């Protein structure tokens, strides 16, 4: 048996979109099950996201602290953002988010991992990048708005973040997955063996 996710799409007899929001929507599909029965499945339709685990020369991860209204928490996270333009190159989007949220640029980019955040109820796909060789970005800082106006920044050692994750102190999906993937990659073939930044991404195909 090969342990690898495979593309498959079951028959949909009917579909509707009962809600359309600013960035996402809700879709209801009538899906034919293997036994022939038909069930309704409601899920959020999402454009996809990118996230950046930015690692500095002191082995610290760049974090931001931001209010997240659905969970009523201020969460420590890694820089991330939506793929606002269909077909957008995810690397370009990640570089933009790192600049806008942290005013930082990186010279070395790799794909750390790709995930579906909540595949039982949302089709969001996230590509998490590893960014190294960090420096302050040129030009003026991005003008923050909404939740980002209250954003804090920190740089935290990887070992400390692992302890915080396992203690249940931090909960952001991309932070948890990114840090643990980083540690696993180091313990395996090494960070230089990670996929290149322009590696194909079937979940969200993009132009070079």
- Number-wise, the strands total 11
The run of helices and strands is EEEEEEEHEEEHHE
Span of the ends, CA to CA: 33 Å
Percent range for β-strand residues: 35-45%
SS element count, helices:
3
Q: Which spans have pLDDT < 50 for at least 5 consecutive residues?
A: none
Largest sheet: 5 strands, mixed
Q: What's the quaternary structure here? A: single chain
| Order of the strands making up the biggest sheet | 7-4-9-8-11
Helix and strand content put the structural class at alpha+beta
Average pLDDT level: 94
Tell me the Rg in angstroms.
19 Å
Shape: globular
Helix fraction?
Answer: 10-25%
Characterise this structure:
- The chain is of the alpha+beta class.
- The protein contains three helices and eleven strands; from the N terminus they run E-E-E-E-E-E-E-H-E-E-E-H-H-E.
- Helix content is 18%, strand content 39%.
- It has a five-stranded mixed β-sheet. Strands 1-2-3 form a three-stranded antiparallel β-sheet, with no helix packed on it.
- A hairpin with a 5-residue loop joins strand 2 and strand 3 (38-45).
- Helix 2 (158-166) crosses helix 3 (173-187).
- The relative contact order is 0.18.
- The mean pLDDT is 94.
């Amino acid at each position: 048996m090969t342990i690898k996710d495979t593309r498959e799409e079951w028959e949909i007899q009917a579909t509707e979109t009962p809600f359309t929001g600013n960035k996402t929507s809700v879709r209801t599909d009538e899906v034919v099950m293997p036994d022939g029965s038909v069930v309704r499945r409601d899920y959020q339709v999402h454009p996809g996201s990118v996230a950046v685990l930015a690692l500095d020369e002191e082995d610290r991860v760049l974090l931001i602290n931001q209010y997240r209204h659905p969970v009523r928490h201020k969460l420590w996270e890694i820089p991330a953002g939506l793929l606002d333009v269909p077909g957008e190159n995810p690397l370009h989007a990640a570089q933009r988010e790192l600049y806008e949220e942290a005013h930082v640029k990186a010279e070395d980019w790799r794909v750390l991992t790709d995930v579906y955040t909540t595949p039982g109820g949302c089709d969001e796909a996230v590509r998490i990048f590893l960014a190294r060789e960090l420096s302050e970005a040129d030009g003026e800082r991005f003008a923050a708005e909404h939740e980002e106006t209250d954003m804090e920044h920190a740089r935290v050692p990887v070992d400390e973040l692992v302890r915080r994750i396992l203690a249940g102190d931090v909960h952001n999906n991309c932070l948890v997955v990114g840090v643990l993937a980083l540690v696993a990659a180091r313990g395996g073939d090494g960070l230089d063996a990670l996929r290149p930044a322009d590696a194909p991404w079937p979940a969200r195909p993009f132009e070079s």
